[in-house]
Amino acid sequence: MKISKEDVIHVAHLARLELDEAAVEKFSHQIGTILDYVDTLNRLDTTGVSPTSHAIFLTMPFARMKSRSIWTWNWRFPMRRKKMQEHFWFHGLSDDRINRI
Amino acid sequence: MKLYELTISQAAALLSRHELTSLELTGAVLERIHAVEDRVGAFITLNDEPAMAQAAIADKTLSEGKGTVLTGIPLAIKDLICTQGVRTTCASRILENFIPPYDATVIQKLKAAGAVLVGKANMDEFAMGSSTENSAFKTTRNPWDLSRIPGGSSGGSAAAVAADMCLGSLGSDTGGSIRQPASHCGVVGMKPTYGRVSRFGLVAFASSLDQIGPIAKDTRDCALLMNAISGHDPRDSTSVPEPVPDYTRFLDGDIKGLVAGIPKEYHASGGLDPEVSQAVNRAIQTLQDLGVRCVDVSLPHTGYAVAAYYVIAPCEASSNLARYDGVKYGFRDKTADTLMEMYRNTRSKGFGPEVQRRIILGTYSLSAGYYDAYYGKASQVRTLIMDDLKKAFQHCDILISPVAPTPAFAIGDNTDDPLTMYLSDIFTLSANLAGIPGMSVPCGFSAKGLPIGLQLMGPHFSEGTLLKTAYHFEQTTDFHKKKAIL
């Protein structure tokens, strides 16, 4: 069996689940069986194989982060200069910006 | 023919010629639902009055000579697709009373097309299951044999179409959850390419695998529903900005010379029921008679798909379902004295056993010391499975396989053996791992009269080719025309 009852209780705690004794017994057996089956993956040599987390090639739709002088944005917001000095300012995302990335 | 037995294209023709009103059609469908729902159990929430109001609006639109092919057509929606003002439970106690404040993009599109939404269809809780036995509310029964499962997780959506409780429906497919119930219920179901249909408003199970798709009485209806729901959506960052063709235009195209790959690993599968194997082989022969050239291909990592999937999907689920903590959504346990106790009680009482099992499996696989051994390894194997498919599609246009290894099994047969249940997904999982489209089309019946489905899969964005092949197959067979007797 791949997963002990103590492990099930610990993982259930991490997942914020409360299990009674019968559920711990059942899950440790069932999950153990599943993990034994999952171990068949270890028969494959995956050295040098890149992992895939996404089935379709997509560019991440986030703006590139660029550092810039705080004076740049202070110049843009002269009326709020004092207040803005306490904050960072980021460009918002618009469809247009996403398409240009 | 009874009104509720019409296909979408038949009903649309009658509606456009003003030989039928949506009020008559929707009324007939709702009557049908009330007549058979206690036996089939396809719906969690019925939408009677709003549906009749939508039908009246549709009739007005049609009387003005406006509208689309879906205007006035009664459809069912899997209960994990958000519908503004209509309860969306995911078949879970934790969302039992959740009423979304917005529509999913697919619902917006269907409403804009004038469709009538008759109700929210039953499913396995949070789409985790292959039998619809994991619903917190009821077990849906297969209209062809009420002692058997309809498949899952979109079992309510497929059973509703098979039992004429709607003219078409939407399901979602994370590992076969549209194709397998479509196969078991003798209807047509399509899992589109990942990113083809917006997931905005689809309650997430495993975000890199989930995809919304149609379930219909025949392939033409499937194409019509695909036309309505496909397309790029800026609100879904994984939606692909690829133009949407008119899928009905593919149907009459020629399939002579099309090359179909027969994966030898699928057909050599030890657990494949002889009746399923025979039905699929007969279907291959029919396609060959239509001019399709069949070639043997190999997908050497097929045997690892179930293991990779049942690491990746629970890992994503354990992360996605962390949001159900009693604070932001749905059910909250009110007996707890501390915040931590409230979290634990809410989630333990709100989630059913299958969901808890997958959360624990996913949390364990992602925990320190096990991440590389489980999630990292499974993600690498996913790459190998995708590479197998890419190589296969260098030699063929589509792949042909069974959908499920057996016809629908009896209710209760596999409830205590999750691994056996998971292994029944062997033929459908690879399409989700690789993000490719797949569909199920009826190709025969077992000796006990249970439907058997043929699976067609193709490269990314090849839905048109799959629909064309399925349509030509339908024209020479009548499996899709047979009706379950209730």
Can you walk through the features of this model?
The complex is a heterodimer of chains A (101) and B (486). Chain A is mostly helical and 101 residues long. Among the domains of chain A are: 5-42, Orthogonal Bundle (Histone, subunit A), CATH 1.10.20; 70-100, no CATH class. Chain A is 45% helix and 0% strand. Chain A has 5 helices and no strands. Chain A has helices spanning 5-14, 21-38, 70-76, 81-84, 95-100. Chain A is flat, with a radius of gyration of 26 Å. The model of chain A is unreliable at 78-82 (pLDDT under 50). Chain B has a domain at 3-257 and 441-451 and 466-481: Amidase signature (AS) enzymes. The model of chain B has no long low-confidence stretch (mean pLDDT 96). The two termini of chain B are 15 Å apart. In chain B, a hairpin with a 5-residue loop joins strand 10 (438-445) and strand 11 (451-457). Chain B is built from 17 helices and 11 strands. In chain B, helix 2 runs antiparallel to helix 3 (48-63) and helix 11 (305-320) crosses helix 13 (353-366). In chain B, strands 1-3-2-4-6-5-10-11-9-7-8 form an 11-stranded mixed sheet, with helices on both faces. Chain B has 486 residues and is α/β, with parallel strands linked by helices. Chain B has helices at 8-16, 22-40, 48-63, 105-112, 155-162, 179-185, 219-229, 248-251, 264-267, 274-289, 305-320, 339-350, 353-366, 372-392, 418-423, 429-434, 463-476; strands spanning 43-46, 74-78, 116-121, 168-172, 188-191, 212-216, 259-263, 293-297, 398-402, 438-445, 451-457. Chains A and B meet through helix 1 and helix 2 of A and helix 11, helix 12, helix 13, helix 14 and helix 15 of B.
